Amino acid sequence: MSQYQNRGRLGGPDHGYSRGAGDQGPRRSGKAHRRADSSSSHNSYTNLGGGYARNQGAYGRDGGSYGHARPRQGVPQPQRDRRGHASTSMPRRAGVEAYSGRRDDGRGARRGGYGRALQGYSPTARPRGGSAPRRRGAALGLPNASTLIGSAVVIVIAAVALFAWNTRPVDIKLNGSTTSVKVGSTLDDIVSAKRLSPKKGDLVSVGGDVLQQGQGYVYSASVNGQDIDPADFGSYHAADGDDVTIGDGSNKLEDYDVNVVEEQPKLEMGGEAWGNITYISQWPKVGKREVRHGKTSGETADGDVIQETQNCVVTVHQIKPDDQSKKLIALTFDDGPADPYTEKYLSILDQYGCKATFFNLGQNIEEYPELCKKVVESGNELMSHTYQHQQLTKLDASSLQSEFSNAFDSINKVAGVQTTGFRPPYGDFKESSWLNSGGLASVSVLWNLDSEDWRRAGVDSIVSKSTNGAFSGAIILMHDGGGPRDQDVEALPQIIQALQSQGYEFVTVTDLMKSDSSIPQDIANGDAKMPDDCTWPTEIANK
Question: Is the dihedral of CA 338, 344, 350, 353 positive or negative?
């Protein structure tokens, strides 16, 4: 084998290369040649992988340039002494470790030292890849020891700070005195930490009798003025500034079975001793409550109210307009429509710019439907005077309700008006009558000034009785049906003139009710109906 085989040829900086074993290609010479130690049978620049590689740099004091095999990244390369011999010593300058190998045959022949390129080289060519090899840790992106230690310290500090925050003391007021407790303490924690000794409650029956002493709740508690249910004691967590009161335990109710029973509403009268209207101020609702049966005691007792019973309340009221600077008064006519009086009244009202309310009988509406329509078309108001003008206090519930429903239906069918307002014949309508009404009517309209035109006492009498004692909120009673009304036709203009001269304004009944804000809006509209979730009572409440 040639002495140059498998050990490479040294050339100048521009032409140096090394051949791998078995490479028989031409050798290119540089400006200078030097051999490695002749005693060594192997070139200190052993070909790595049999391929050509270049690595140029300045070696030795004489400034000669030596070409040698380009190092593979990550494999130690030999260092040379000033004669060009391979050196086994470690380089002094910052670089990589050197390696000195020996043969396996025991003859002790030295192999060339290997090392990575040192700082201080003057390279004329770069290693392949364009950059110096990186360390293994950097290549894998792994954190160094300092980073790991720093992260661990930060985690420990954060954990300590979090623990300190979660266990910090806070000031609360306990039974009137300020004290410190651990933040987030439960009521049980506070009782234990402050060594409180509240007296336990008793176990009691559904009827309130003591069954076992000391078997009730351990303590009672309130936080910031609100009582805490024993079942919620564990949900409280102390916060700074809380006001906590812990006292003796309350009694615990025995286990029991429950039945839910309904309680029917009743009808009750209320309001003023007398007034020109009576209306339903509260609609009736069925109540629901518990009936408890104690499992230990065997007792039966009323329990919680699930839904309050709501009685039907009928209120007597005198209309009082809110605006005292206005004088409002209502003209009303019963028993119509009637020919020819109703139409004459409408003409007079129109002449003086007045509005009135007509309480028509259902049967008369069916007889004179066109007159009924004219009342509404002229801007006046329609309400019911029942169907046949029967005395309602003498009727049973079914008959009374027929009087209402038939009259309301006639008004709606002929005039397209939905109303639940009425005037009872003879003004007779009692508490028992309201009970029998079945909730079909909402407001009963009476009067303050009775013309007594039914007596036919003369025009002057009718005018006098209709105007003397007038006041704002008053209602005047006249008739357009039920007999001859010629005196009324003559008296009506005088009544209007007399009151208008005193500053009165004639309005409908609903407008008069709307002037009084104490009257519910649906009642004042004249068309209030019993809500679907209500049940009409069948008995009168005890007074």
Answer: negative
- Do residues 498 and 482 lie in contact, with contact meaning Cβ atoms separated by under 8 Å? no
Within 8 A by CB and 6+ apart from 181, the residues are 169, 170, 172, 174, 189, 190, 193, 194, 238
CA triple 481-327-275, angle to 5 deg: 60
What global pTM score does this model have?
A: 0.62
> Six-digit token pair at 378?
């002229």
Q: Catalogue the active-site residues.
A: 334, 479
The verdict on 134 and 183 lying in the same domain is no
Q: Are residues 113 and 187 in the same domain?
A: no
User: Tell me: the pLDDT tens digits for 137-170?
Assistant: 445 566 788 888 888 888 888 887 777 676 789 9
> How far apart are alpha carbons 382 and 413 in whole angstroms?
13
Q: Are residues 111 and 176 in the same domain?
A: no
What pLDDT digit, counting tens, does each position of 170-183 carry? 999 999 999 999 99
Residue 120 to residue 54: CA distance in whole angstroms? 18
Spatial distance between the Cα atoms of 206 and 253, rounded to a whole number of angstroms: 6
Q: Are residues 75 and 204 in the same domain?
A: no
Hunting for tokens 């979730």 — which residue is that? 533
d(CA 74, CA 117): 10
Q: Tell me which residue has tokens 């954990």.
A: 159
CA angle 319/324/326 to nearest 5° reads: 95
Considering the domain architecture, whether residues 439 and 345 belong to the same structural domain is answered as yes
Containing structural domain, residue 367: 327-515
**Which string of DSSP letters, residue by residue, matches 439-477?**
T---EEE--SEE--GGG---HHHHHHHHHTT--TTEEEE
User: How far is C-alpha 178 from the geometric centre of its chain's CA atoms?
Assistant: 36
Give counts: helices (H), strands (E), the chain: 12, 26
Per the rule left: phi > 0, alpha: psi between -120 and 50, beta: everything else, 23 is beta
> Which three-class secondary structure state does DSSP give residue 167?
coil
Q: Alpha-carbon distance 415 to 423, whole Å? A: 18
Question: 3-state DSSP call for residue 311?
Answer: coil
**What sign for the dihedral angle of Cα 239, 240, 242, 247?**
positive
Contact between 449 and 477 (Cβ < 8 Å): yes
- From the list 387, 386, 360, the residue with the least C-alpha distance to 375 is 360
Spacing of C-alpha 41 from chain mean position = 92
pLDDT number for residue 158: 80
Q: Say whether both 119 and 70 belong to one domain.
A: yes
CATH number of the domain that 203 lies in? 3.10.20.30
To the nearest 10°, report the CA torsion of 164, 166, 168, 171: 170
Q: How far apart are CA 345 and CA 375, in angstroms?
A: 10
DSSP string, 369-422: HHHHHHHHHTT-EEEE--SS---GGGS-HHHHHHHHHHHHHHHHHHH-----EE
Site of tokens 């990550």: 74
Taken in order 38, 68, 22, 88, the sign of the CA dihedral is positive
